[in-house]
Each structure stands twice: as structure tokens, then as C-alpha cells.
Amino acid sequence: MYQAFLLKYAEIGIKGKNRYKFENALCEQIRRKLDKIDGEFQVIREQGRIFVEAQGDFDYEEAIQEMGMVFGVSGISPVEVIEDKSWENLAAAVGDFVEHQYDSQDFTFKVKCRRSDKHYPMTSPEVCMELGGYLLERFADLSVDVHDPEVVIWIEVRDKAYVYSKVYPGACGMPLGTNGKAMLLLSGGIDSPVAGYMIAKRGVFIDAVYFHAPPYTSERAKQKVVDLAKLIARYTGPIRLHVVNFTDIQLYIYEQCPHEELTIIMRRYMMRIAETLAEQNNCLGLITGESIGQVASQTMHSLAATNDVCHLPVYRPLIGFDKQDIVNISEKIGTFETSIQPFEDCCTIFVAKHPVTRPEVQRIRQSEKNLEEKIDEMVQTALDTIEVIEVDS
Ligand code: ATP
Ligand code: MG
Question: Which residues have CB atoms below 5 A from the ion given as ligand 2?
Fold first, then answer.
């Protein structure tokens, strides 16, 4: 039905001299997506737009869906290519397009034209006016509304002519690979997959780390994290998921430290290990799904106490979000159903009845002194026994 798609992008348009880098990264990500589906696609960069020409049999819905998950794309329009752009042929082809696209032609419309072929014998306003007239004559039910039309019929006159009228929303954001890499602390909850998605949306590649505490956390809980990584990989691209065995460290903290401080101390060790992994993997920051006040470990005091051990920037894109806002995004990106499966994560096993909500950094540091004897060795063992899972959608 369609031989091509026209993709529009928003923010890249303002990148000045570096614009080509963003456009190249965008084309690469579109190709990577389309490689996964049947059909032959050619991705062509042309004056502020990207054309995807399709050949052979392909699943039209699937192509739109896949391209809709490429960060940097703001809209996707299926376009009909008009090889012979002479006026008579152009008008007839646009008329056929309107006839096939819509069951009835009972709507208001206007024509918009962009002409990059400056040798074309008609100017853009002329094309709009003449085509408007032609369509009105051919379809009795059509009427023009230049201010608030129900349908905009777009014509692009280039080496060939193109017509389209539907725009499917893109994922927006910036193309992956234009902004380095970060390490996501990925749990099985609702928040961290959303946090990873949001940072990736700004062009950042993602690696991930999951702290696993067998037998207190089950294989199913780990599988759930792998499943979540797979779901966000549709947007973020392949993810190297590092599974850290955290059991001994957790038990040791449990033995040696005041119970109301368990969560904070445990989180400090998660951050330390994640940071080491980040440095080993050329990541420029950490990402968590924390949001102020959501739980005891996310009060301003607790966040400060956790952050105390970090040297790399910690990105917390959900910091000012209400839970419902986060849920809305997780539903939109398709992680919600998996996130709410009831498998315990390691934080829920060792939680104290009354965790501190206003931990003092000095006191926490003092409590950690109780760990001095064995903790370095345990952290080293945890790092040495990491399981790396290459996750792709
Ligand atoms: P989430 O819904 O992302 O699990 P949460 O509301 O349950 O978050 P916490 O359990 O306090 O909050 O975790 C805060 C953040 O710490 C998470 O968003 C995640 O980035 C990280 N985190 C928590 N547990 C783990 C884990 N087992 N492995 C890796 N990261 C974790
Ligand atoms: Mg959690």
C-alpha cells in the first residue's frame, strides 16, 4: 500500500554545526530497528527529513510501531511516492490518494506544499491552490477550511513528489548514541525501568545492574528484571545487565549494623558497587528510580546519606514525580504489567519495622565501621562473580 515513510524530528533541527552527527545517529537507530523486521528498507537523509523507502512485503503496522520507538523521531507519516510529478499526473495521484485513504470524503481540508525542486514549474502556493481546486471538483463532499482543517494534505515536491496526510506520533527525545552511556540500577519495581527509559530518551545508552539475593530473592524475581530489561531495550537498544550476588553483603550488614539503618547502609553498598561497574564500563553516571518522599529510603535525608558515597553524577529523572505520573509512563512504555508481578525484591526481605527516615551521615559512617573486617573482600567477591546477561528486545 505505502512505498515510503517520511519521518520528522524536532530538537535535532536546532543543533547547528553538529546537526549531521545527530541525523546520522538517528538514521543508524532507524536502520537498526528496521533490520529486525521483514522487508527491505532504505533510510535516506534529505534536507531536514528522513525518508524510509520500503520494498517487498512487510507488515505496515509493525514498521510504524518499530519506528515509533526510535528516540529522536517526532512523527511518522506513510507517504505515497509519485514518480511522475507532472501537474496532470500529480493531481490525479493525489486525488486517488484521498479516495483510497478515506472511506468518505466528507471532511474539511487544506493542502500544504513544500517544494525543494526549485525548477518545478509551479510555486508551492500555486500547487496548494490548484490542488485544492482539483480536489473540490472531484469530491463533492469536501470543503476547504484553511484555519482549522480536519485533514491536512501534505505534498512534497523533490526529485519525485510525495503525498501524505497521517502523522503517527514518534517517541521524541534525542537519538541514542549522542550522549554517552550510564549505568541504571534496575530493580523489579515500577520506577527504575521508567527512569532508564527517560534518560535513554535523551540520547544516552544504558547498561544495567541488578542486586540479587538468592535464596531470599527467587530466580523468578531475577527473570522479572531480565524481562523488564528486554521491554525497555525496545527503546534503549541492547543492555548489558550485570547481576550482582548481594546475599553475603546483606547478611553481613544485618549481623553487624543497627537494624533501623539496614536499608540506608545496603543502598550505600549498592551505589558503591554500581559506581565501580559504571567506571569499568565507561558509564558517565548512575541512574535510579528514586522520587522524594516515596518511601523511608527516599526522604531528602536518606537520599543525602545514600548519595554521600557517590562520586559520579546520579541521575534521578523521577525525583519530582508523583507515583501516578510514573505509573502512567510505565503503562505507556509497556513495563507496568511486568513490574506489578508479585516477586519480592531484595529490599523487602531485610527491611526494618521502623527504618530511620532522618539518617545522619556521620552516624551511618560510624555504623559502617562495624563492617570493616570483611566488607572489602565481600565487595570484591561480588564484583568477581557477576553474571552478565546481554539483553536485547
Ligand atoms: P523501583 O520501583 O524502581 O523498584 P522503589 O520505589 O521500589 O523503586 P526502592 O526499592 O527504594 O524504590 O529503590 C530505589 C531505587 O534503587 C530503584 O528505583 C532502583 O533504581 C534501585 N534499586 C532498588 N533495589 C534494587 C535492586 N535490587 N537492584 C538494582 N537496583 C535497585
Ligand atoms: Mg523496588
Answer: 187, 189
Dihedral over Cα of 278, 368, 190, 228: its sign: positive
What's the CA-to-centroid distance between 211 and ligand 2, angstroms?
11
With a pLDDT cut of 70, the percent of the chain lying above it is 97
The pLDDT value recorded for residue 349 is 59
Are 46 and 178 contacting, i.e. CB atoms less than 8 angstroms apart? no
Antiparallel, parallel or unpaired: β 4-9 and 49-55: antiparallel
CA of 295 to the centre of ligand 2 (A): 10
Rounded to two decimals, what is the model's pTM?
Answer: 0.92
266-299: string of b/e by CB count within 10 Å (b at 16+)?
Answer: bbbbbbebbbbbbeeeebebbbbbbbeebebbbb
Other Cβ atoms less than 10 A from the Cβ of 39: the count is 14
| Ligand 1 atom closest to the CA of 318, numbered from 1 | 18
Using CB atoms within 10 Å of the CB of residue 20, give its burial: 0 to 12 exposed, 13 to 18 middle, 19+ buried. exposed
Kindly state the greatest CA–CA separation across the chain: 88
How many angstroms separate the CA atoms of 207 and 28, rounded? 19
Ligand 1: centre distance to CA 263 (Å) = 11
Within 6 A (CB) of ligand 1 lie: 185-187, 189-192, 209-211, 288-290, 294-295, 297-298, 345-347
CB 4 within 8 A of CB 54: yes
Ligand closest to CA 299? 1
Mean pLDDT of 367-379: 98
| Separation of alpha carbons 353 and 362, rounded Å | 22
Q: What is the pLDDT of residue 2?
A: 64
**Assigned C-alpha cell, 302:** 536518606
Pair 250, 344: CB distance under 8 Å: no
Instruction: Tell me the average pLDDT of the chain.
Output: 93
Distances (CA, A) of 380 to 158, 248, 275, 383: 61, 12, 13, 5
**What residue's CA is closest to ligand 1, atom 18?**
289
**Sign of the torsion formed by the C-alpha atoms of 275, 277, 281 and 287:** negative
Q: Whose CA is nearest to atom 4 of ligand 1?
A: 189
Flag whether pLDDT at 343 surpasses 80: no
Q: Best mutation site among 183, 184, 190, 191 for ligand 1, i.e. most ligand atoms within 8 A of its Cβ?
A: 191
- Please tell me the residue having the least CA distance from ligand 1 atom 11: 297
Interatomic CA distance for residues 245 and 259, integer angstroms: 21
For 287, the enclosing helix (H) or strand (E) is: strand 286-287
